[in-house]
Amino acid sequence: MTILGLMSGTSLDGIDLALCRISGSAYQVLAATTVPYTDHWRQRLASLEHSSALDYAKAHVELGHLYGKVINEFLSGKSVVVDAIASHGHTIFHQPDLGLTTQIGDGDAIAAETGLLVVSNFRTFDVALGGQGAPLVPVGDELLFGQYDACLNLGGIANISYRADGHRVAFDICPCNMALNRLAARLGHPFDPKGSIARRGACRSALLDLLDGLDFYSAKPPKSLGKEWFLADFWPRVDAADGSAEDLLCTVVHHIARQVAHVVGQQRIGSLLITGGGAFNKYLVECITGLLPSVEVVVPDSETVNYKEAIIFAFLGYLRLSGQVNTLASVTGARCDSVGGTISGFCLK
Question: Which of 60, 62, 68, 82 is nearest to 35 (CA)?
Answer without folding.
Answer: 68
